Records
---
Amino acid sequence: MCGQLALEQKIRHYYEGSIRLRINNNTTNVFSLEKVYHTGEVKLSLHRIFLKAPTPVIKSLVRFIKNPIEKHKKDIRIFIYKHSDEIESKNSASRPTPVVTKGKYFNLSTIMGRINEKYFHNRLRVMVSWGKAGIVMGKARSNIQFANFDANKNLIRVNPALDKRIVPEYFMEYIIFHEMLHKVVPPTISRSGRLCFHTKAFRQREREFKDFKKAVCWQRENWHRL
Ligand SMILES: [Zn+2]
């Protein structure tokens, strides 16, 4: 509880009003605020990740308490996103995600190891697995979703539709590189409060991939064969 006391003190340093703080371990409502209008008391419920929130985040929190508009939520959302792997999903705790890296044609952990060494100084700690067979991860126009990065589980899932002879190695590398970048380049938050993952900074970093143009070309011409 001493962490909670320290956090309360930090908040009180910037906020003079009456406040009641509760630390939660929720998976969805990690942050909630309620103002009791007749007393002016603020009931604040924060996930335990906030116990180590740095001063700028505390200041944003106070700004939001004083004036709870979407704009003031931005830094809070980014903080939550950055720590999302510490917000344990109850489902995932009881059902550990099976991690399968060996496919028929590709071994995902071998590919990731190579990319990690070449582009991330071997420093990125993230898991990779084939997604569930038979599940097409969303089809939009000419674009199958080939993979995704689950920040909660720190896991990259690759669509098993890619485990085919026709898929060139550089394309698999590109797909994994792209998802690894999601771990490195944080999303930004638009004015309306939506997370934007493929930011300008992200697109720039993506071009560092050696076969970027070739991979994009291959995708354009071959997606329908997958
Ligand atoms: Zn992406």
---
Amino acid sequence: MRIGALRSLLPLAAALCVAPLTHAQDADYSHYVSPWKTHWDYSGPRGPQHWSALDPDYVLCNTGKQQSPIDIRGAQKAALPALRFEYRGEPLRYLINNGATIRINYHDAAGSGNDLLLGEERFQLLQLHFHRPSEELVHGKRYDMVLHLMHQASDGHVLGVAVLLRNGGANATLQQLWDHMPKTEGQVGLEGVSFDPAGLLPRELGYYRYQGSQTAPPCSEGVTWIVLKMPVEVSAAQIAAFAQLFPHDVRPPQPLNARIVEESE
Ligand SMILES: [Zn+2]
């Protein structure tokens, strides 16, 4: 019953993910298919100012009032629930370059994947990907990169975790991916890579929280964003390797409008 209910939610999951998972969630994911039917870009005539005009499915991008990313400032301290990451290592089967970023899709059955507990609510990791520099600003400051870990609860609630990455020591977990980074749009099959996303998390889990959206078309809203305060170090060489493929895969900060940003105590 629960599995059946979850299956019926998968199209919803597809609609809400940063890049829709319509194809990636199919049983056969051995072949790469672009998640977007209409091409968009981070600059020029298909850039962020024009996303809504490119496709009716992208209309929220320039009309939504709860869009992401934002510049985090004026946060209000609040008694927010603790985060508990129940991540684990598992073999990676493939790594994607979707033309906008490097990305991992997860296909775990409910209850067998990488979970995140926020208070009583349980979320499962659906995909992770990177931006350079960070899309989020904190008090006007941008970081060298950001990791986005996109989760979903069984009721469809989407939760993104942003891990700010800054120039420092090399990260061994990141290097496992970078060693196999597809240089052009498509995917590469992997063998013998056991990957644990917990290796990309900071030591301390204080965070900012606000309601926002996917930061790429279709810019779907209803996404709870958790931005971890403590950054994680990656090396200059690791940043440069990503920048060679994606020098600027970043949407500009969006108006906060009536939203409130909360900060864990
Ligand atoms: Zn992202």
---
Amino acid sequence: MEPPRTRIDWPGRHAALLDVERASQSTCDPIFQPDPARHTLIRGDNLEALKLLVPSLERKIRVIYIDPPYNTGNGLLYNDRFGSRGRDGDRHASWLSMIAPRLLLASRFLRDDGIFFASIDDRELPRLRMLCDEFFGEENFIPMVVWRKKVVRGRGNRHILPQTEYILAYARNINALAPFRENLTHKMKAEYLHHDERGPYKKIPLAKSGTRQSPRPNLYYPLTAPDGSEIPCPTHQWRWSRETVENRKDEILIEKNRKGRWTVYTKQYLRSPTGEERGRTPESYYDRVTTSDGTAEMKELFGEVVLDFPKPSRLVRDLIAWATPPGSCDPVMDFFAGSGSTGQAVLELNAADGGSRPFYLIQSDDPIPHQEFRSIYEICRGRVERVIKKLEKEGKSPLPIREYRVSPIP
Ligand SMILES: C[S@@+](CC[C@H](N)C(=O)[O-])C[C@H]1O[C@@H](n2cnc3c(N)ncnc32)[C@H](O)[C@@H]1O
């Protein structure tokens, strides 16, 4: 018998999850045709759209990024207040009933080497984490990104000013997900200031620093200096075993330091023998852009802020760049597309690295009070069209767009 699992329960869970199995009550116009040579924009409710897309895109998506309503209770252009305390249970239950079927469906779109990212703040973080643990498997959890979205102090809390939010990340199958990489910064590259026939390198002490916990006896031994004297290990252990030092002699440097003591280094080369530049593993703390960059981007494209708090496209672009190789054609999906920052991220990443990743963006068509844009969907399309025009002016050839409309069967 399977051991009982820890899972999150709420009034309405059963009905919400049963909904996933119900056939869609909507139609797609025109009939959906997956086309990796185009970007896809879908206007309509995402649950209905996801149901209609499953047969063609099941296990075909490499990256899903979503930025769902956070349940702040604030009046935004879209509904961000779930539940009415009195009648239909609490606001968390109502939010969970919205998000749960969509997450369950989302997991079906991911390829085996796929990755799911979800932005969230601390209001619904614990519930989203539990749901994702259940649907994706806790073993597929990847360290969460903490995004510093604000640097100004702001107002609104007398105890701790909230300046961060989070990006949960889950692999479809942690064993199939390739390591994330990103380029070294200019500052990091500048550290490779030595040079030999294999190219630039930096010197790293062979003596391991840090904790003494569980020292390994095979890493504690004396080395021999060029003058024949013995060099005892100056810390609790070396980083390489005696055999590795022997096998990689060319990468060992033994030099006298300022005090006249022998010091042992390894050479860390900037490029691999095949010429590939070293990358680095991204870190969980992200502070490269803030919400104001997202707003500025929108002003630049539209001349005004047509939607509050859009994500800066650089943030989404970095996530996609970590997870997909340069020049790739891996499909990306965002089914809470909002103003289309994920669309901009994919378009600009493709333009920068020669990739042709197609995106699938889904955004509801609920009316908004704006003269030019009748819905957030139209803002999304407007952004994508503007970015495509800008890139074409720069001589790039982004993939063309195809639009669909998902609407209830009359
Ligand atoms: C937090 S916003 C996304 C913002 C977006 N990342 C951006 O940078 O502009 C969430 C979006 O999801 C949309 N949305 C909410 N429920 C939806 C549904 N059932 N189907 C489709 N879109 C939905 C809202 O209209 C809103 O634009």
---
Amino acid sequence: MTESDLISVVDYARASADKSKDEHTVKDQRRVNELTAKRLGCKIVARFADNDKSAMKDGVIRDEFEEMLGVLRTGQLADGTRVMGCIVVADDRLVRRTGDYERFVDALTFEEGRVYADARGFKDLYSEDVESMGLMGAVISRMEIKKMRRRAREWHRARAREGNILPGNRPFGWLEDRKTLHPVEAPLLRQAALRVLAGGSVTALCNEWQRKGVKTPRGNDWVHVSLSRVLKNPRLCGWRMIRGELIMDDRGEPVSGQWEPIITPGQWQALHAIFAERKGKVIDRFGGDQGQLPRDFREHSYLLSAIARCGVVLDDGTLCHRPLRAGQVTNADYHRYLCKAPAIGGCGRLTRRGDVVDEFVTEAVLAKLEERTTGPTDVGPWLGERELEMKQEQMRELRLRFAKHTISNTLFFTEVERLEPEIQQLRADQERFNLTAQRAAQDLTAIRRRWYSETDEDRLDLSQKRGYIREALHAVIVHPAGKGRRPFNPDLLELVWRE
Ligand SMILES: [Zn+2]
């Protein structure tokens, strides 16, 4: 992480007038704030502090708190330095008089994307979840938060709805005007999106980009967080999203921006579904939920690491079943899979030459995939279309009546709260459907060529291959072959297929 990636914040400290209740001087609090900032990837660009005691003594109100509110509202210091949030030791440091909390939240949430943190970590002041807000939540009633949040959003949305290009850093893939596609970055980004759609891993892409010297617009190396953030952004297909919600027009359709898109809305929806599903789940080629799977957190160097499992029968009659680890064999051009030593959780009684196992499993999976290409690839139309249209029409009607004051506030919000989750549910369903359609349309006929190719642009990398294998197989159980050197026996490999 470089200096420019840090979030610019201010901090606030307050020494209470009642010394007996106060364990922290301003200096102490500032030290804690510094640690908090460092831990959370923030940098403090200005510091505010009030001293209740001296304020009383001098008869002067040193209102740095008020000054800070001004800074937070405008989002910048007098010299133009951007301010994206505030750090304190604890909520109670902000209290000076009634109404301070409200005004603080109001100033901080005046724009989207600001952060607030205390010594325990970030707190979401945009959230309606009062429970998680602690003291803040106790003071501000639910409705008040809603009101402030709505006001801040409306401000932002009003601009977004016009499809205006908002100020900020140049997004990767576009030129400085933020509209025209970048001749080098746009194709790269499109390729990356397609790779992930085809089951590729983001980490593998980052590694490739690092090798090629592809940098972020700020000149940094790509890492998993930054690249997945870019791929999750609907900007790719011309849409806008604020805090996880797509910006819709009055007809309930996503608003298209003024910039050139890199992929189609259908492709983006499929990507979005992939990221949503990756939060711990894997879905098969036809969109079915295959339940929890261990995530591929890191880029594996071998085809079957963590997929191949030990088939040794232990003394108590159970199968060892531990995932095998892989390693290069010294002075040989092949690797082997082996069960970890008992000290680190395996039985240590199995080892198998890796290249032959990989080849056998690859051929089995390829045969299965090729079989599929003869099956139906047309998934038909999405059946929720009509229902989604109806719900969106209802929402539009509600908004119109609300605008004309022919409906009460209470009724309006009750209805909106009922409709919104239903529409979200349908949209999520539509996304999953698009993902299925995308995958079904994928050309599997060339898979063998792409699998073994070393040079073709569309060759599969290891993470994509692992993706196909994990999609096809639950596991490969490697059964023991007995003592001594023996020829490779495929019967000792048990392929556990997903159906
Ligand atoms: Zn074992």
